[in-house]
Specification:
L-amino peptidase D-ALA esterase/amidase, 401 residues, 25% strand, globular, 2 domains, 11 helices, 9-stranded mixed beta sheet, alpha+beta
Length: 401
């Protein structure tokens, strides 16, 4: 079903009814022009809640705590800090995550079990709890505070990532952060989603997983996965529309709205990769299965050699073919079609002449599309990433110094 879904200009995570947010500078990270590092998202009423988390075996304390609390399928608030990941911090880290949630709960008259926690920043450092205790008390919540939250969760991001879409019956909003340590699987980065739709919990979980698989799990910046990766959605039902469940018209519309929101945020993260100058979009069609199409597309977009070639505007298409060949997807060289932009470099395994300067010009654009047809089946998938620049090395060689 093709629903009419409109993006809301200047929309944010607080665009859906009943959501408030706010942020403050607590001193957890170095002072930035945005001046904030501690934020809170709150629903005026209890929510159905679902999330997906990192599959990294080293799980940060806030991930462990939030996973435990989400077993109830209910939540009402999320408290988030940037500048310290609270990862690999042992029992003290778990205690600090719990205290952070308890402080947020007490400040708003909530039960601690209603508050989830997320952190992002340097691994192996403990939260400065004195700063957090003071900071939480200074957060002022508002309907416009979604923009403040989106800025407060940034680390090496250069721009906030926000989205809101409306179907006319309900709204979906979101905020995300991420610019490095991006190669997610089943959960990713930090992403918080809200909706005023009344969504049945089982469907909410399934819809989120499907949306993540098509969006966040199809981006790669550097091949690393964070111990803090979290994608979370809260649904408070305040739109008053028809309850949303699986196998219904409203369910299909909600799925589309959620997927469009997640895809927008995922592409924003890929575009803003550390040191990035170009967004790379790789579409693989003609695969024998969706799983293989996704595998091939992700392998190409995450290849350091492909990423470096794009950065240098070098039409070295052999790197793309090599990545396809090692991806694990079924590939027959004599059947491959390959395009960069609208220029055909390989057709049926043969090498038609092409103008290298024309391809180089395409590679210098702000968005670079790579199209591959394996001509083996009907499955298709798209992945997003960015080029690999000298600035990426600079950022990550000086991250803690």
């Amino acid at each position: 079903m093709a629903a009419k879904i409109d993006f809301i200009a200047s929309g944010s995570i607080t665009s859906p009814k009943g959501f408030l947010a706010g942020a403050t500078y607590a001193g957890i990270k170095k002072k930035t022009k945005d001046g904030s590092d501690l934020s809170l998202l709150l629903s005026e009423v209890p929510c159905q809640a679902a999330a997906m988390f990192t599959t990294n075996k080293i799980k940060a304390a806030p991930v462990v705590l939030s996973q435990q609390r989400l077993k109830s399928g209910r939540a009402r608030a999320v408290v988030v800090n940037s500048g310290c990941a609270n990862a690999f911090t042992g029992e003290p880290g778990l205690a600090n995550a719990a205290e952070m949630a308890n402080l947020a709960a007490r400040s708003r008259g909530l039960s601690p079990e209603d508050v989830l926690v997320a952190s992002t920043g340097v691994i192996g450092e403990r939260l400065p709890m004195e700063l957090i205790r003071d900071g939480i008390e200074r957060i002022t919540l508002s309907r416009d505070g979604g923009h403040d939250l989106a800025r407060a969760i940034m680390t090496t991001d250069t721009v906030p990532k926000e989205v809101a879409v409306t179907t006319g019956d309900f709204t979906v909003g979101g905020a995300a952060k991420g610019a490095g340590m991006i190669h997610p699987q089943l959960g990713t980065l930090l992403c918080f989603l809200t909706t005023d739709a009344a969504v049945e919990l089982g469907f909410l979980k399934a819809a989120l997983q499907k949306a993540v698989e098509l969006s966040f799990n199809m981006i790669s910046i550097d091949g690393d996965t964070s111990p803090n990766d979290t994608v979370l959605i809260l649904a408070n039902g305040l739109a008053g529309a028809t309850p949303v469940s699986e196998d219904t018209e409203q369910g299909a519309i909600f799925q589309q709205a959620l997927e469009q929101s997640c895809t927008h945020l995922a592409k924003s993260i890929a575009r803003d990769g550390e040191g990035a100058t170009r967004l790379i979009e790789v579409t693989v069609s003609g695969a024998v299965s969706l799983a293989e199409a996704k595998l091939a597309a992700r392998t190409v977009v995450s290849s350091p050699l492909v990423k470096a070639a794009v950065h240098g505007a070098d039409p070295n298409w052999g790197r793309i073919v090599a990545a396809l060949g090692r991806s694990g997807a079924e590939v027959v060289g004599s059947k491959i079609d390959l395009y960069i932009g609208n220029v055909c470099l390989v057709r049926g395994g043969q090498l038609p002449p092409f103008d290298k300067s024309r391809v180089a010009a395409i590679l210098k654009g702000s968005e670079v599309s790579i199209l591959v047809n394996l001509n083996l089946g009907t499955a298709k998938a798209t992945a997003w990433g960015c080029d690999l620049s000298e600035e990426y090395v600079t950022i990550n060689s000086q991250y803690t110094t």
